[in-house]
Amino acid sequence: MHAWPASEVPALPGKGRDLRIHDTATGGRITLDPGPVARIYVCGITPYDATHMGHAATYNAFDLVQRVWLDTKRQVHYVQNVTDVDDPLLERAVRDGEDWTELAERETALFREDMTALRMLPPKHYIGAVEAIPGIVPLVERLRDAGAAYELDGDVYFFVECDPHFGAVSSLDAEAMRLLSAERGGDPERPGKKNPLDPMLWMAAREGEPSWDGGSLGRGRPGWHIECVAIALDHLGMSFDIQGGGSDLAFPHHEMGASHAQVLTGEYPFAHAYVHAGMVALNGEKMSKSKGNLVFVSALRRDDVDPAAIRLALLAHHYRSDWEWTDQVLADAVERLARWRAAVSRPDGLPADALVEEVRAALADDLDAPAALAAVDRWAELQSSGGGSDEGAPGLVSRTVDALLGVAL
Ligand code: 5CA
Ligand code: ZN
After folding, report:
1. pLDDT (tens digit, 9 = 90+) per residue, 83-115?
2. Which of 109, 278, 324, 402 has the fewest beta carbons closer than 10 A?
3. Which fold has domain 297-405?
């Protein structure tokens, strides 16, 4: 599957700082040591509806990770999936009387447009679940042959107790896991499972649903977690730097994915850091396709909202906090964008070398975008009262804001 075009990332003077980031598994900040090529896997969309501000906020967080790494002169190997076959997508297609492949293609195309408009840097590999199936089948067969998976009425389940590290990503107790599993695509109540939490690896073909050749597994389609594991192992291998997504993916998705991979390879860990973005809400409830309380990136773009303002609205919130989308959030961002543009449009200004370091320091400190915005605000404020005569300053500020925050002034 193709991704979307990359916006150019200006090079900044000096060198960026190494990223310290909050890791869900350890519950604290860790300093990553990625080597010359940093490796990151970010869970992609299930394309049955348009990109909403919650998605955009999560991808914004991982775009910042990429920008911090690029600023340290590293290459970034970024992989993202598209869950282009799954229950909610098929259900939506049936509800709307639409072909499921057309729905997935249309919404994925819109996502690409939204990501391009928001200047999110594309993944190197953008892989659909359907195109990953030939790689998924042998992994499930291997798990079954190793005794880590079992069959139940034709479906194949992963036995979570095979991974001694199961639970290490989310650190939840059994009851909390059971509740979240039921809420997020699992089937803890299904009779015959060895452990109620066991997730499906391969679902036998269902009447009226698409299915693929699964070799010795029979016809069917892949479970959700194994999809991301197959794509990550294929393109990144084990022990990559960051596994990312929204906080609703910590359990079961990232917990199960880590266990699948660890049992498959006998290596630990799947990822060095599990990084999770907070949830964006609308009218007091998590924005979600299933509830329908959504503000779409594409709808704002249609209303002529500058994508740079949307991006600033996301950046005004720390990626780990849960926050609420309101009209005021957007109005503040529009106003900030205008202030910053006025400040960099002057022919000269206050020296900005210190500002570059402040923005770098803020982002390297667990992606503290609000602190980075506050630093640029201070420069813009002083700049508006005149004074400086550094001819290179406005250009340097523009390049900094572009390279590190993805905002084009
Ligand atoms: N396809 C799977 C991941 S493999 C999936 O979760 N797709 S999704 O379309 O439901 O979500 C895509 C990403 O957006 C996930 O990282 C999810 O955690 C994040 N996300 C969904 N809703 C919100 C929200 N309200 N606020 C913040 N992030 C959200
Ligand atoms: Zn995923």
Report:
1. 999 999 999 999 999 999 999 999 999 999 999
2. 109
3. Four Helix Bundle (Hemerythrin (Met), subunit A) (1.20.120)
What is the spatial distance between Cα 170 and Cα 338, in angstroms, rounded to a whole number? Answer: 41
> From the CB of 277, is ligand 1 less than 6 Å away?
yes
Question: Whose alpha carbon is nearest atom 28 of ligand 1?
Answer: 54
Can you give the pLDDT at residue 110?
Answer: 98
Q: Compute CA distances 203 → 158, 209, 234, whole Å.
A: 12, 11, 22
Per-residue pLDDT, 238:
98
Q: How far is CA 49 from CA 9, 89, 105, 106, 296, in A?
A: 30, 9, 11, 9, 9
Going from the Cα of 403 to the center of ligand 1, the distance in angstroms, rounded, reads 25
Residue with the nearest Cα to atom 18 of ligand 1? 246
d(CA 118, CA 113): 9
| pTM attached to this predicted model | 0.97
Reference 201, options 252, 245, 164; nearest CA is 252
In CATH, which of 3.40.50.1110, 3.40.50.620, 3.30.70.260, 1.10.10.1800 is domain 20-277? 3.40.50.620
The answer to whether the bond into 269 is cis (omega within 30° of 0) is: yes
Q: Is 324 touching ligand 1 by the criterion CB < 6 Å?
A: no
Give me 178's structure tokens: 């059971």
Helices (H), 254-347: 255-265, 297-302, 307-315, 327-344
Q: Sketch the domain layout of the chain as residue ranges.
A: 20-277, 297-405
Residues with CB under 5 A from ligand 2 (ion): 43, 228
Tell me what pLDDT residue 387 has. Answer: 67
**Statement: residue 350 has pLDDT above 70:** yes
